[in-house]
Amino acid sequence: MTPATFYDAVGGHTTFVRLVDRFYEGVADDDVLRPMYPEQDLGPAKERLTLFLEQYWGGPTTYSQTRGHPRLRMRHAPFKVNPEARDRWLAHMREAVTSLGLAPLHESQLWDYLERAAFSLINTFEE
Questions:
Q1: Are 121 and 86 contacting, i.e. CB atoms less than 8 angstroms apart?
Q2: Cα 45 to Cα 26: distance, rounded to the nearest angstrom
Q3: Which of 78, 82, 56 is nearest to 67 (CA)?
Q4: What is the CATH code of the structural domain delimited by 8-120?
Q5: What is the CB-side half-sphere exposure of residue 69 using CA atoms within 13 A?
Q6: pLDDT by residue (tens digit) across 61-102?
Q7: Quick check: 122 and 81 in contact, CB under 8 A?
Q8: Is the distance from CB of 15 to CB of 100 less than 8 angstroms?
Q9: How many angstroms separate the Cα of 38 from the Cα of each of 20, 34, 76, 95, 98?
């Protein structure tokens, strides 16, 4: 039987937790990205990203139930998201995606979305 959603096909909750945990390992020591996360503990940010990605890919709708519409550009507006921040975000996310060992088609689909999302969130070209 074919899984109903991308979320199911890639392993569900466990896979998205692994992705986000690995991503934030890189963010924790990144001097450009880390200041964008006001909480001392990255736990709340991890939870938000996990819930968002799970919902986007066909998993539980907990993100919208608890936080409303994602409004990614609005939520990122207070932060300086320039090309350098985008590139660092993508570098950490590339490492995280690769670490999952997904089937090539799934990895390509996930990466395509993440790359487009990162480019769409640029809100300044200032250094």
A1: yes
A2: 13
A3: 56
A4: 1.10.490.10
A5: 3
A6: 998 888 877 676 667 667 788 999 999 999 999 999 999 999
A7: yes
A8: yes
A9: 18, 8, 13, 23, 27
C-alpha 40, offset from chain centre: 19
| First-residue to last-residue Cα distance in the chain | 50
Locus of tokens 């320039």: 82
The burial class, CB within 10 Å (0-12 / 13-18 / 19+), for 2 is exposed
- Nearest to residue 107, comparing CAs of 55, 115, 65? 115
Place of tokens 């466990």: 14
In one letter, which amino acid is 108?
Answer: S
| Lowest pLDDT segment from 18-27, 74-83, 112-121 | 74-83
What phi-psi label fits residue 12: left (phi over 0), alpha (psi between -120 and 50 degrees) or beta?
Answer: left
